Amino acid sequence: MKPVPVLRCAPLWRIGVLARALAWFACAARALLLLAAGVTLLAACRKPPATPAAVVPDVTVTTVVQQDTPVDFEFTAQTQSSREVEIRSRVDGFLDKRMYVEGQVVKAGQTMFQMDSKPFEAALQTARGQLAQQQARLEVAKANLARVEPLAAQNALSKKDLDDAVGNEKQSAAAVIAARGEVDTALLNLGYTTIKSPLTGLSSFARQQDGSYVTATANGLLTYVYQLNPMWVNFSISENEMLKYRDQIATGQLKFPAHNNFEVELILADGSQFSQTGRIDFTNPAFNTETGTFLVRAVFDNPKGLLRPGQFVRARISGAIRPNSILVPQRAVLQGAKSHFVWVVDDQSKAHQRVIEVGDWHGDDWFVSEGLKAGERIVVDGALRVAAGAQLKIVAAPAVANSAASAPATQAAGAPAQGSSSGASQ
């Protein structure tokens, strides 16, 4: 008979551990579900943040005014002596001595160089001796003619003898004239050995030193003398600027004074202004074919000699006006994608964009040729914070010096030339 199999059960302690683990997992799952439900409830109860109120920008405005505006033209110029004289030797010879101090002012008629005069004194003596010989021959010829004429009248001598006597007398007279010319030439050459200044001015350094042999053709230049009073100031106007300003004059955008009677002021290299004012006294009738510019010259009194030849200065020409022009501050003009624009303020203090056409500079302002009318208000300070149609808060402008009134009006253009219709150059 087979034995009956015996069923073996797990120990009771293992069953208890498994039950407790299952209970712990169940509790954890319930806790996670409750936490998720709480988070969902809090998110549903939270309110969205309130939209902040729009900020009204503070701006300053100015009213557009249309009026006649004086304009100046500023450009680079260079000074030039009104008389720049080369001191040269007129004869060949040795240079004995320099008689002036280099760089000092010399007077008209003052001796500057002395050449060796001995060869020229000897030449003068020779010429005078030849003149005396010719004068003696003339006396003999005259006496001979005086004897021949009565004898020829009595037919005691032939006609040929009379003609020979007359011819000899005329030849002797001509020889005397030539001899006197040689004497005059010798006197001139002797005088040329003393070289004097033809004018009062500032002297340059000596190109030849004492003891040098100079010739009138090769190395006859000895020095220069520059007249300082008056002084010339030269500047150039480009052809494009000439045409531009002629068009503006024709359309009434620019007006020059009667007879082009401009006033010219000079700004020196250190920024100081020259005390004297000048006037335009010459305009070249033709353009320079190499540079395409038109030469204009102004003249200045220079009694103290402060201006020297060759200085670079800035010349400011006054007298022109722009009739019924509109000026706006530069900071009020903004650059768009295709053009310049400003913000125009209406009666409700709202901003509207306005496209404008700008012209030349005038100090810190800009000329506006199109786009604005007198009486309109535009934004000056705070224009970058303005949006189209936005409400604006208009505040008073800070108390600062008006740069357009205190600084001289300038344009990056040029100088007006003298003539019926002329322009200015940068």
From TrEMBL:
Residues 124-193 form the Multidrug resistance protein MdtA-like alpha-helical hairpin domain. It holds the Pfam family RND-MFP_C. Keywords: Membrane, Transmembrane, Transmembrane helix. Belongs to the membrane fusion protein (MFP) (TC 8.A.1) family. This is Multidrug resistance protein MexA. It comes from the Bacteria. It is found in: Cell envelope. Residues 83-217 form the Multidrug resistance protein MdtA-like barrel-sandwich hybrid domain. Residues 230-318 form the Multidrug resistance protein MdtA-like beta-barrel domain. Its main location: other. InterPro entries: MdtA-like_b-barrel, MdtA-like_BSH, MdtA-like_C, MdtA-like_HH, RND_pump_MFP. The chain crosses the membrane at residues 21-44. Residues 406-426 are annotated as: Disordered. Residues 324-383 form the Multidrug resistance protein MdtA-like C-terminal permuted SH3 domain.
